[in-house]
Write a structure and sequence with these properties.
Blueprint lengths: L5 H5 L1 E10 L2 E6 L8 H8 L8 E7 L3 E8 L2 E6 L9 H10 L13 E2 L11 H9 L5 H12 L2 H8 L4
Antiparallel strand pairs: 1-2, 1-3, 3-4, 4-5, 5-6
Helix pairs in contact: 5-6
């Protein structure tokens, strides 16, 4: 069981699963019980079909994003700001999964994980790095850009802002 608190779960702005099935992108809300740690997210993602695996897109407290992609037994992780690990259980779970050391005195966000997490789907690592380096973007905007680049931007927009 994780140390994630109810307050931390309430600070999750967005938690979606995206998967490509029969050539069509599908989105679903990531169930709350899966948001305890990377392993719980990976376990939940394995429930979804997908030609390219299933992808979790998570925005936390308007501060950082976490991407988790499961393809069979392979679990790939990208955290937009590893310096969040001391303060956030889910971020700590990501850096623990990755086995990286976090410098807590960093002034700027430092990504950790696999920048090429979506490269085989047409989103190169260099582009991902540039996206995460844009400190003017809010986490939900980062996820929206990823969705657009992968081909489900309209579905993402409909899901995140159904009144538009």
């Amino acid at each position: 069981m994780s140390d994630v608190t109810d307050a931390e779960v309430n600070d999750i702005d967005l938690a979606l699963v995206a998967y490509l099935d029969d050539g069509t992108w599908n989105l679903a809300e990531l169930r709350e019980h899966a948001l305890e740690d990377v392993e719980s997210i990976a376990k939940e993602l394995r429930r979804y079909p997908g030609e390219t695996g299933a992808l979790a897109l998570i925005s936390i407290d308007e501060e950082f994003v976490l991407l988790v992609r499961v393809q069979g037994s392979l679990v790939r992780v990208l955290l937009s700001d590893a310096t969040a690990a001391p303060d956030w259980t889910l971020a700590r779970s990501a850096v623990d999964h990755l086995g990286v050391h976090v410098e807590v005195d960093e002034e700027e966000p430092v990504p950790a994980g696999d920048l090429a997490i979506l490269a085989d789907m047409g989103f190169p690592a260099a582009d991902m790095g540039e996206l995460l380096d844009d400190l003017d973007l809010h986490p939900e905007d980062v996820l929206g850009e990823i969705a657009t680049q992968l081909g489900f931007g309209d579905e993402f927009d409909d899901y995140t802002d159904p009144d538009d």
